[in-house]
Design a protein that fits this description.
With about 300 residues, the chain is α+β, with helices and mostly antiparallel strands. It is about 30% helix and about 20% strand. It has eight helices and eleven strands. Helix 3 packs across helix 4 and helix 3 crosses helix 8. It starts with 16 loop residues before the first strand and ends in a 23-residue tail after the last helix.
């Protein structure tokens, strides 16, 4: 199941989302006095104890999810949160707020860890009822397409559709590339960007996650792109060991990570973002709940309610 499954498009809707028609006056005005995504950045930071989560991952690796990593669990926690706070899946284009009709995550995959290694992208799509096992499977299906034994995208014989599009556009002369980007921005603004390009664009996703910890760095506040429709960009930092005193006055050892998010304030309000990030924290400290489908799925209410 995907968001708004079965809903018919109406005048004003886009093929990748439905116009939110019940906005309060302040929310409706925000994209007009903050017309750019960089006008509306809000930064969130959280440090989360993953001591129990690491034990959970080790246990599952020995059992039914041998590929499981911290990255997978973060993705699964975000996907599950979308079922509880569906307003997270909104985006702003042309000063209008839309509710996305799919859950799509984006992430960078390095073709090795060398200075000359190039980057590729994967964009797994998720269902509202997905469990942690489903999320791992969907990510691994995308990741396994990428040949990390070669450092160059051009050398990869099994190029993804994104790789092919990237190589094609990257080969254009500067004037033609500028013209192509002008065309994409204009058509995207009016919801008529070619679907073939939209489908392989990581910039048209529900969220974008980067794992800075995988290269030994702490989390950063990563910009959200002005091109496309991404409203949430998250970064995972490296693991760090910490010590603190427990309630009995005894020294306690733990492991934690830092998560940092940049979000578009215009897409939904700060209260709902706060609720969402609390839920992400909850699932990272209670990962066993991700093994089962959600008990209840909330759907984004985007229509005006008739009075009387």
């Amino acid at each position: 199941m995907v968001p708004h499954e079965g809903r018919k498009r109406r005048w004003g809707d886009r093929y990748d989302g439905f116009l939110v028609r019940n906005l309060d006056p302040m929310t409706r005005m925000e994209p007009y006095f903050m017309p750019h995504r960089y006008d509306a950045w809000v930064l969130f930071e959280d440090k989360i104890d993953i001591t129990e989560l690491e034990a959970f991952i080790r246990d599952k690796r020995k059992g039914d999810i041998p590929e499981l990593t911290l990255y997978h669990v973060v993705f699964a926690a975000i996907v599950r949160t979308f079922t509880e706070v569906p307003e997270l899946n909104r985006f702003v284009v042309n000063s209008k707020v839309y509710s996305r009709n799919e859950i799509k995550g984006s992430m960078v995959v390095m073709k090795g860890m060398r200075r000359d290694s190039e980057r590729s992208m994967i964009m797994p799509r998720f269902q509202l009822e997905d469990t942690l096992t489903d999320v791992v499977r969907r990510i691994e299906e995308e990741t396994n397409q990428i040949d990390t034994t070669v450092s160059s995208v051009a050398e990869d014989e099994n190029k993804t559709k994104f790789d092919k599009a990237e190589l094609l556009m990257g080969s254009l002369p500067a004037w033609m590339l500028k013209l192509a980007m002008w065309f994409l921005r204009k058509t995207d603004k009016h919801g008529i960007m070619p679907k073939s390009l939209h489908k392989v664009s990581p910039f048209h996703s529900s969220f974008f996650i980067t794992n800075m910890g995988s290269i030994g760095m702490d989390a950063v506040f990563h910009h959200i792109y002005e091109f496309g429709t991404v409203s949430i960009f998250g970064a995972i930092g490296r693991k760090e060991t910490y010590f603190e005193m427990d309630e009995k006055g005894e020294k306690k050892r733990g492991v934690r990570i830092k998560l940092q998010f940049v979000v578009d304030e215009r897409a939904t309000d700060g209260y709902l973002y706060a609720v969402a990030f609390r839920r992400i924290r909850y699932y990272l400290t209670h990962p066993e709940e991700l093994m089962n489908p959600p008990e209840k799925i909330e759907f984004d209410r985007i229509d005006r309610v008739k009075k009387g």
